[in-house]
C-alpha cells in the first residue's frame, strides 16, 4: 500500500512541477514590466465611487445595476477589487492565482478522465498573449479568472464523487458549479461542455442522473437571474438574440473571430514580442534572459513527462473541438456584432487540448521530445510577447493619468465638483500610437477617448464622487452640443496635443460651424454642423 501511494505521488509530481513552472513564467510575464495599474473600466468600476461598503452593497442590490449583471463577479468587484483599488496590484495577483489554479484544476480533472497531455493546454490558457485582454485587464479578468477557478474546482469535486462515492463530492460540485456560472456567459458554455464530458466519461456508473439534474438546476437558476435583470442596458445591448438575418449575422461574426485568431493574433505576437525583448534586454539582461529561458525549457521538459502513453483518443480530440467552438458559440446566437479579443479567449481551451492530443499520435519518445521542444520555444516567445503587451497596458495607464491630471489642474476645483458643469476634451485618443500593439475595440484603450473611463479616472484622482460631465471628442465624433455651448459659464473646452499635453481652447463661430482655437490663436480643429444641435469634430 505504501509503495502504491508513493508511486502515485511520484507519477503526479511532473504535473505539479509543470504547473509551478508555468505559474512562475506567468508572474514574470505580468509583473516584470511593473505592478498592475488601472485601465479603462477599472477606473469607474473600482475607483472612489464605491469606497463606502454601504454604497457598494446598494449598487449590487438594486436590480439591473452594473455590479448585479453577473452576480458573483459583482461580489468580487465590490468586496475585493474596489477595496483594493489603491493597491490594485494585489487584486491582480489574486486573480492571476485564480486563473492559474483554475487552469490546472481543469486539466487535472480532464487527465483523471482520460486526457493524455497538459502542457499545451496550460501554455495556451495562461501564457498566450492574445488572451491577456481576458485574463490581465482586471475588469475582464475578474469575470474570467474566478470563473475558471470555480469551474476547475467543480469538475474535480464531481470526479472525486465518481471515484469515491462520498457525498461531499457531489455537494461541492453543486455549490462550486453554481458559483462558476455567475461570472461570465462564455464560461457557462465551457462549464456545461466540460461537465457533460465528465458525466459521459463516467456513464458506466449508476450515478449519471443526479449530476445532470444538478447541472440543469444550476443553468436554470442563472437563467432566471438573467431574465430578472433583462432590463439592464448592458444585457439589452449585448445579450439580446439575433433579430436580423441570421445568415448575415453568422458571416459577420465568423469573419471577426477568424480575423482575431489569425491577423490580430499575428499582429499582437509580432509587435509585442519585439517590445517584450526590449524589456528583457533592457537591464540585468543575463539574469532575465537565462532565467526565462531556463524556466521555459524546464516547463517544456516536465510537460513532456506528463504525456501519458496511450492510443490517440477521438473522443478527447472531439472534446477539444467542442471547447474551441463552444468558446465563441454565444457570439453567433446573440445579436451583438461587437466581438472583442476577450470573448474568444475560451476557444484557447480547445486549441490547447487538441494539440496535446495530437502529440499522442506520435511514438511516445518522439511525442515527448517534440512536446518539450515546441513548449520550450512557445513558453519563451509567449512570455516575451506578453511582457510587451503588459508594458503597453502600463504605459497607457500612465498616459491616462498624465492627461487627466492636467485636465484636473486646468479646470477649477469649483467646476470639477459641480455636476451641472460640462467639460469638453478635443483630440482624445482611443489608442495611444506609441503603446498599443493593436487598435481594436477594448484592446489597451486610452481613457481620453471614452466618456465613462475618463470620468472614472478624474473622480478617483480628485476624490470627488460626483464631478462634472467630461465629453471626449476623437476625430470624426458627432455629438449633441446645443444649447449647452451657448450658455455662458456652463462649458469649458480643452484640447489634447500630439505630445499629450492639455491646453485650453475656445470655440469661435465660423458660419454654422465652429473653429477650435488655442490661446495663441492657432487652429486645433473644427466642429462641423450636422443638424441644429449636433456637430462633427474634424481636423
Question: Which key phrases capture this entry?
Answer:
20 helices, single chain, alpha+beta, 539 residues, 2 domains, eight-stranded mixed β-sheet, disordered N terminus, 8 strands
Task: Write a brief caption for the model.
This protein is an alpha+beta fold and 539 residues long. 60% of the residues lie in helices and 9% in strands. The protein is built from 20 helices and eight strands.
Beta strands, count: 8
Order of helices and strands: HHHHHHHHHHHHHHHHHHHEHEEEEEEE
Q: What is the average per-residue confidence, as pLDDT, rounded to a whole number?
A: 90
Number of domains: 2
Intertermini distance: 79 Å
Describe the biggest sheet?
8 strands, mixed
Percent helix range: 55-70%
| Uncertain regions spanning at least 5 consecutive residues | 1-7
Strand content: 5-15%
Strand order of the largest sheet: 2-1-4-5-6-7-8-3
User: What class would the helix/strand composition place it in?
Assistant: alpha+beta
Number of H- or I-type helical stretches: 20
Using the CA coordinates, give the radius of gyration.
25 Å
- Bulk shape: globular
What can you tell me about this protein's structure?
This protein is an alpha+beta fold and 539 residues long. The protein has two domains: 2-232 and 253-392, no CATH class; 411-538, no CATH class. Helix content is 60%, strand content 9%. It has helices at 2-31, 42-46, 53-61, 71-81, 88-112, 119-126, 132-135, 138-164, 167-180, 185-201, 209-228, 233-238, 246-280, 285-306, 314-326, 330-333, 347-358, 364-410, 413-416, 451-462, and strands at residues 422-426, 469-473, 478-480, 491-496, 502-510, 513-518, 523-529, 534-538. The protein has an eight-stranded mixed beta sheet with strand order 2-1-4-5-6-7-8-3. A hairpin with a 5-residue loop joins strand 4 (491-496) and strand 5 (502-510). Helix 3 packs antiparallel against helix 4 and helix 4 packs across helix 8. The longest helix is centred in the C-terminal third of the chain and has 47 residues, at 364-410. It is globular and about 80 Å long.
Amino acid at each position: 500500500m505504501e509503495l502504491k501511494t508513493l508511486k502515485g505521488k511520484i507519477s503526479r509530481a511532473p504535473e505539479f512541477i509543470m504547473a509551478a513552472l508555468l505559474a512562475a513564467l506567468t508572474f514574470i510575464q505580468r509583473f516584470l514590466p511593473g505592478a498592475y495599474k488601472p485601465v479603462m473600466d477599472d477606473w469607474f468600476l473600482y475607483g472612489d465611487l464605491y469606497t463606502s461598503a454601504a454604497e457598494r452593497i446598494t449598487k449590487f442590490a438594486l436590480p439591473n445595476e452594473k455590479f448585479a449583471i453577473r452576480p458573483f463577479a459583482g461580489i468580487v468587484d465590490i468586496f475585493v477589487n474596489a477595496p483594493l483599488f489603491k493597491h490594485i496590484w494585489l487584486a491582480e495577483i489574486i486573480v492571476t492565482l485564480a486563473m492559474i489554479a483554475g487552469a490546472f484544476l481543469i486539466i487535472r480533472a480532464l487527465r483523471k478522465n482520460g486526457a493524455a497531455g497538459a502542457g499545451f493546454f496550460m501554455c495556451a490558457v495562461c501564457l498566450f498573449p492574445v488572451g491577456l485582454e481576458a485574463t490581465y485587464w482586471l475588469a475582464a479578468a475578474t469575470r474570467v479568472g474566478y470563473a475558471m477557478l470555480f469551474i476547475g474546482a467543480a469538475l474535480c469535486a464531481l470526479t472525486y464523487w465518481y471515484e469515491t462515492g462520498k457525498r461531499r463530492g457531489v455537494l461541492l460540485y453543486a455549490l462550486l458549479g453554481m458559483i462558476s456560472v455567475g461570472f461570465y456567459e462564455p464560461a457557462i458554455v465551457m462549464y456545461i461542455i466540460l461537465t457533460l464530458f465528465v458525466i459521459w466519461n463516467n456513464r458506466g456508473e449508476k450515478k449519471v442522473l443526479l449530476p445532470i439534474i444538478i447541472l440543469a438546476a444550476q443553468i436554470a437558476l442563472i437563467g432566471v437571474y438573467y431574465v430578472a435583470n433583462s432590463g439592464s442596458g448592458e444585457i439589452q445591448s449585448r445579450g439580446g438574440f439575433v433579430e436580423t438575418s441570421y445568415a448575415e449575422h453568422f458571416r459577420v461574426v465568423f469573419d471577426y473571430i477568424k480575423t482575431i485568431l489569425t491577423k490580430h493574433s499575428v499582429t499582437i505576437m509580432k509587435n509585442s514580442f519585439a517590445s517584450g525583448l526590449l524589456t528583457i534586454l533592457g537591464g540585468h539582461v543575463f539574469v532575465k534572459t537565462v532565467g526565462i529561458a531556463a524556466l521555459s525549457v524546464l516547463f517544456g521538459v516536465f510537460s513532456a513527462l506528463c504525456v501519458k502513453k496511450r492510443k490517440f483518443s477521438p473522443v478527447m480530440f472531439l472534446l477539444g473541438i467542442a471547447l474551441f467552438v463552444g468558446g465563441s458559440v454565444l457570439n453567433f446566437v446573440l445579436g451583438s456584432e461587437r466581438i472583442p479579443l476577450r470573448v474568444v479567449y475560451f476557444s484557447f481551451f480547445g486549441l490547447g487540448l487538441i494539440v496535446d492530443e495530437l502529440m499522442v499520435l506520435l511514438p511516445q519518445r518522439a511525442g515527448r521530445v517534440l512536446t518539450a521542444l515546441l513548449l520550450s520555444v512557445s513558453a519563451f516567445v509567449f512570455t516575451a510577447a506578453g511582457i510587451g503587451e503588459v508594458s503597453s497596458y502600463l504605459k497607457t495607464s500612465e498616459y491616462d493619468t498624465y492627461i487627466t491630471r492636467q485636465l484636473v489642474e486646468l479646470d477649477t476645483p469649483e467646476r470639477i465638483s459641480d455636476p451641472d458643469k460640462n467639460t469638453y476634451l478635443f483630440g482624445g485618443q482611443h489608442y495611444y500610437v506609441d503603446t498599443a500593439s493593436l487598435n481594436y475595440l477594448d484592446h489597451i484603450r486610452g481613457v481620453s477617448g471614452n466618456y465613462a473611463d475618463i470620468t472614472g479616472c478624474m473622480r478617483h484622482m480628485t476624490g470627488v464622487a460626483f464631478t462634472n460631465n467630461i465629453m471626449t471628442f476623437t476625430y470624426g465624433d458627432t455629438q449633441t452640443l446645443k444649447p449647452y455651448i451657448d450658455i455662458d459659464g456652463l462649458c469649458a473646452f480643452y484640447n489634447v496635443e500630439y505630445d499629450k499635453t492639455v491646453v485650453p481652447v475656445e470655440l469661435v463661430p465660423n458660419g454654422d460651424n465652429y473653429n477650435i482655437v488655442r490661446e495663441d490663436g492657432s487652429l486645433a480643429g473644427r466642429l462641423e454642423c450636422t443638424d441644429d444641435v449636433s456637430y462633427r469634430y474634424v481636423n
